[in-house]
Amino acid sequence: PSQERSVRLRRWHELMMENKEELARIITAENGKPLKEAQGEIVYSASFLEWFAEEARRIYGDVIPASAKDRRVLVLKQPVGVAAIITPWNFPSAMITRKVGAALAAGCTVVVKPAEDTPLSALALGELANQAGIPAGVYNVIPCSRQQTADVGEVLCTDPLVSKISFTGSTATGKILLKHAAGTVKRVSMELGGHAPFIVFDSANVDHAVAGALASKYRNSGQTCVCTNRFLVQKGIHDEFVEKFAKAIEKELHVGNGFDAKTTQGPLINEKAVEKVESHIKDAVSQGASVVIGGKRHSLGKNFFEPTLLSNVTTKMLCTQEETFGPLAPVIKFETEAEAVAIANAANVGLAGYFYSQDPAQIWRVAEQLEVGMVGVNEGIISSVECPFGGVKQSGLGREGSKYGIDEYLEIKYVCFGGL
Questions:
Q1: Any idea where the Aldehyde dehydrogenase domain is (predicted)?
Q2: Do the Cβ atoms of 351 and 372 come closer than 8 Å?
């Protein structure tokens, strides 16, 4: 019953908060995220269980006025069934609860396949789910090696017992899973790659824009789907913005062990991630970009990289064409609003976008014109449990969190009573 689902989800939330420190330490140990950020993720993660505990009792159907006197028309919302949940390593707790909270609130059971780099967070959530009274077989976890990941993903997407796939990860992997799921026409939710633009117009408060840029770009060392990947700065304030941004990076960012209280930038997830950042910097510099600050691996170890700022960047460079997923901030100078919007919308993905302006008319225009699922206006951090998370174009299908998130796990059934 919905009330019982609500009670157990809320108890799960309470247990997460009671064990916040241990859960955060697991995240830091698994992916290197600074402990303060990991603690923030656990609070954010638990909030989805609380939110959907409340939404579980608000799955309303409809009574529709019938066209015939002897009929009554009803609409029911029912759980889709078994949901396969495939999650990434960068938010190993929150990406699970955002999906699982909605699924369990709707009345579904779930099979979670966590990223091969971060299985322990998923298993820790499973232990707390047991303590919260979530019945055996309702929350299931399948950890697997990197070598087995593709095979396990294929099984989850093709097995007829699975009714729903929810995936967060790269666009390339999402397309593979969509092909697998097509054979049995499963319900699918996809939160895929981003390439977020961050536009700073001449009317912007530059200090506020720098603070937003720092938060948006370097959280989790640039390893989030909504991290800014391209900075577009209007020529009137370009030099001032770059100068202040460089000073903020130097003053406020500290690379180190995630368990060190001073650390704001932990290691990247693996060697491959570091090599991608290096290749983007090398390509940009070879085409005329200038390294303002950073630009190389950090002395702490092979997976640590210096927070990097590039200027004199053009749209022909790899770092403005691909998602870097690392601590690299490339700055492009532009002249007109139309030019900035055109550059921002040139990507085939559209998850998040940000811009800073104090011109009300411009704010309305640009917010409506940006081809993304989420827009931050004078704000660099936009994720919130109450708000719909998701993208357009090749950034995905469906929405998570918010009042809309539970609909991804519900089927709508029309019932017609006749002969009355």
A1: 2-415
A2: yes
3-state secondary structure of 275: helix
Tell me the CA distances in angstroms from 248 to 8, 170, 214, 236, 242, one per residue in order.
44, 30, 8, 20, 10
- Kindly report, residue by residue over 147-203, the tens digit of the pLDDT: 999 999 999 999 999 999 999 999 999 999 999 999 999 999 999 999 999 999 999
pTM across the whole model: 0.95
User: How many structural domains is the chain composed of?
Assistant: 2
Integer CA distances (angstroms), 417 to 78, 412, 420, in order: 18, 16, 7
CA distance 292 to 243: 9
Q: Give the whole-angstrom CA distance, residue 134 versus residue 84.
A: 17
**Marked catalytic residue, from 108, 225, 227, 319:** 225
371 assigned to active site: no
Domain that holds residue 315: 196-377
Look up residue 310 and give its two tokens.
Answer: 């590039």
Question: What's 175's domain CATH number?
Answer: 3.40.605.10
CA distances from 416 to 61, 70, 73, 80, 412 (A): 14, 10, 5, 20, 13
- Catalytic, out of 30, 37, 191, 371: 191
How much is the pLDDT for 131?
98
Q: Would you call 225 a catalytic residue per the annotation?
A: yes
Do 229 and 167 share a structural domain?
no
Q: How far apart are CA 334 and CA 229, in angstroms?
A: 16
